Amino acid sequence: MRVRQLQTFLREQKIARTSDLALCRGMRIGIDAIYFFRSLKGVTDPLSDASNSLSPGFFASVDEQLQAMDRLQIQPLFVFQGMQPRSHLLLSVQMMGFAMHEAWALYNRGDRQAAITKFGQGPYKEFSESSIQLLINYLKSNGREVVRAPYFATSQLSYFVQESLVDAIVGPPSVLLFNVPRTIIALDFVRNTFEWLELDEILSRFEMDKEQLVDACLLAGTEHCVTYPLLPQAFNFSNVIDCIKQAPVIKYLSQLPTRDGLAEYVDGYCVAKSLVMYPLVMTINGDVAPLFRRLALPNDYYKIVGGRLPRNLYYLMCEGLVSVQIPFALALNEWMDEPNPHADSLEYRDLLQDVREYQCRAIGLVVLKLDKTYHNRHIRFPGQVTLKGPTPHLKNGVVMIPNTCPARIWTFTSDELNAELNRQKCNNVDVSMLLRWHFTEKMPKPLVPTHQLMAQQELDPKTLGAKVYMMLLDNMGYFTRELGPTAFGKVLANTQMSNVGLVVLELLKFGLFTGDPLEPPLDVSHASELYQTTPQDPQEALDFKAINLVARLSSLCPMEHLDTMTWRGMVDFDIACFNAIVRCLSRSINYLAEGCLAYLVLGYITRMELIPTPVMPLYSETDAFMGVVVKALLNESAPTQRQLLDSLAVKFPNCLHLQKDLNNLANFWQQLSSLVGALHDLVGLGETMEKFRRGTKILKTALEKAGVKADAL
Questions:
Q1: How far, in Å, CA of 101 to CA of 387, rounded?
Q2: Which of 136, 212, 461, 510 is in the most buried spot, having the most CB atoms within 10 Å?
């Protein structure tokens, strides 16, 4: 929970103390992971965030902090936030979306610095679920202790302090609202200092009690209740302190001018107050229970946090193996979409509706292992505004029940899997390798599982990962009913692109493998400045769409030779919109993979330790800057190779070895051309293939001009 301007105010009042970091040597410290990493410059980079891309300095920044902790022998326990009630509209990233489009308009007008400043503004900007999953798995792969709280990270940290499981905690000042006596609010490994706050000192300085401090924070505003409407526009936290010391909250509630305003504000206030008064945490014995055991939960508390879930499902979420969206949907009967991207499009919003099938099936796979009362739950999926059709209209929220069609599981053993890996001379299990094995008809056929069959399955991490992949492909429609190969399955089996190839085929399936201009949603500001229009001349239109297609697809090829600073090169709105589409599609596939994993392990708790960290998530975020580099290359008019490379070096100073990255792109494009060509031979791609071939020809010419060998294209 974040409180408006609380941290700034406490620093201004010099209540935040500074001490030598050596005092923390050897300590076990609980860390609010999102709060901590969000403050790191390399992790949250304005231009990378705007481009819907991972920052070039993401891993370097995380590693730097981990190494600094190791030097002081600090043992961190990273706690990530879990399920949270939906934020209020005024503090949500939906409002941030309007600011982001204004920032893009500034960028397109040439005011780069003002745009970067606006991109970086966002005290309520959230990490995406993809970023959270990436951090969880990266920290785990580095041997760090990670826990995902069932609800608030701050209340979970308070529980760890209460149980003496940590020596200190790092978190926002709001953690003090959960009866923590003191908290560290900042670690500075450069100056070897840390800032910390003490609850008693705050209460003493302002002559308040704990209850008054809570009410002051709620009047100031959190993500669950807006700032008290009658406070001065030039807000300062001292305003709410003065208010609370003069009169109780009930007086200020009665001063609201309209009944509607009163009801809306009181509702938000009560939700936020309940979350502070009755926080839920994961206990050391694996139960989810109130932090303050002496207080009985209100009878209608479930309306805020949802119903109680099975213990094993909480466990999967707390281990970071299942995203919060699936348990959130089962607890509150509502699917929680990720925040709007920083570059929005109508195609993105339509895709949100198109992938409901995958999300519904992911929920269905989980509920198949739960009590039958979950099978007919009505899950509400939010609607979106769409311009497709004769007039703009709002797509109403869709209510669906989980897709509980019978699942099939594969029965191959670890010995059979290893024998096939040796036959194919593969080191790793991936979707293409498994499809090749399946289509030889030597893979044991899947069966509809029974309790006895599931109990007899002996799984090692590699075999478990392989069975998750096969269930995923089955649920995505890559096999016929008779388990024969579909056209998509055939081409994916014969490519080296594996997971990236799966995304390419899904883009084709949903009609997003295109260079046509993206359409603006109804509620996007500055649309005329941001969205492209097709040239009138037929040949120019073909080249325009071909270049768009090449640039967008190039974003799927990560750049390997970037410095570890924040992104300092050009960005492009169209590429950013496409990156948002790819991120949405990848996350939906991840949800389905998580459903498959949960299906295989729920009810068999001994299998939890077998789950290999790299298997989940199937797709992790990467940098997506190759697309904007390629777009600049294709539109570059420099006459010589040297001038061309010099021009690109000025536009993209992060690129340390641009020609090496372009060589990687040439290899990537060769594999992509083989995959698309094979699918065209089977089903015919018509005009899409014409644009792709034209784009390949333009790309080949540009790569050769840059000194990159592209004969195979």
A1: 18
A2: 136
